[in-house]
Design a protein that fits this description.
310 residues; alpha/beta; TIM Barrel; 8-stranded parallel barrel; 4-stranded antiparallel beta sheet; 16 strands; globular
Length: 310
């Protein structure tokens, strides 16, 4: 059997497939099930200081013709204190990442210190700071496009926990290197790229935007070339200096290889779950052919990282 174990900094995973934040991440039962169904790690839904109902429907639109999703959920969540109780129920063998959003350093520190205090036996593998959601007010991309704010948030967070800090970057910026530089200089343990792209659709008969929030974010297969380009650019700039997790459009084994060749250490998968009957079908199909490819090429998965730059 081919060994698919990989490392993202100090975090060792059984395989490079990570459940992205959003789908299946709102409860301990769905996270446990996703891990049991083959993911190397799972990421929670983004959690904030206060509970949020999110935006009213329609908030999610599946675009069959391009296998993509337009959404403006509005980071709906129960708040970090309530969600900490969910984390206590995680199966002990599950490697999980907690996604957090906030508007300032104090909010991130408050949430992380609370989780660290209450989840001692089975701590998260990492915290993923959502500095990139394009449709939530005063959080996400609103703070994730300012290098000074990013540096401040990460610097404060790094002083408050020993758990690795992953930073999810937005593609909705002219120069992503500027925010990556701020994150790295502040001590980020890995960069996650990319989050959804700013997007909007209009119903030509009603003659109004389809989403209740009007503006949303686009994910799925249509954004994969942008995700690949971003990882390629980040690896070109930083090489092995910082671990990279590629996100955007991963739906089959070839996509995993492509992200690794561009420079990724691992990939996250979210929207593609809509194209499969179960998470198990998705992971098993990818892993089976991935193992065959690596066997034929006589390489380990980690040895593919960044080869497209040679």
């Amino acid at each position: 059997m081919i060994d698919l174990q990989i490392k993202v900094g100090d975090v060792k995973l059984r395989n490079p497939l990570i459940l992205a934040s959003g789908l299946l991440g709102s409860s301990y039962s769905s996270l446990n099930r996703a891990y049991e169904n083959g993911f190397g790690a799972v990421t929670t839904k983004s959690i904030g200081v206060e509970s949020r109902d999110g935006y009213p429907n329609p908030s999610i639109i599946y675009l069959e013709e391009i296998k993509s999703i337009l959404n403006a959920v509005g980071v709906a969540n129960p708040g970090y204190k309530v969600f900490t109780q969910e984390l206590k129920e995680m199966n002990k063998d599950v490697q999980y990442v907690v996604s957090l959003f906030g508007s300032n350093p104090d909010e991130f520190v408050q949430m992380i210190e609370h989780i660290d205090e209450h989840i001692i036996v089975h701590s998260p593998s990492a915290y993923e700071l959502n500095l990139s959601c394009p449709h939530a007010k005063k959080v996400g991309m609103a703070v994730g496009t300012d290098p000074e704010i990013i540096n401040s948030i990460i610097s404060c967070v790094k002083k408050s926990t020993r758990i690795p800090i992953w930073v999810k970057l937005t593609p909705n910026i002219t120069n992503i290197i500027s925010v990556a530089e701020a994150a790295i200089s502040a001590g980020a343990d890995a960069l996650v790229a990319i989050n959804t792209l700013k997007a909007l659709m209009i119903d030509i008969y009603v003659k109004k935007p389809i989403l209740s929030n009007i503006r949303g974010g686009l994910s799925g297969r249509s954004i994969k070339p942008i995700g690949i380009r971003t990882i390629f650019d980040l690896f070109e700039k930083y090489g092995l200096e910082i671990p990279l997790i590629g996100v955007g459009g991963v739906s089959k084994w070839q996509d995993v290889i492509e992200y690794f060749l561009a420079g990724a250490n691992a990939v996250q998968i979210g929207s593609a779950l809509n194209d499969y009957s179960s998470p198990k079908e998705l992971t098993s199909k990818i892993i089976f052919v991935l193992e065959n490819y690596l066997s034929d090429e006589n390489v380990k998965i980690g040895e593919l990282r960044g080869i497209a730059h040679e």
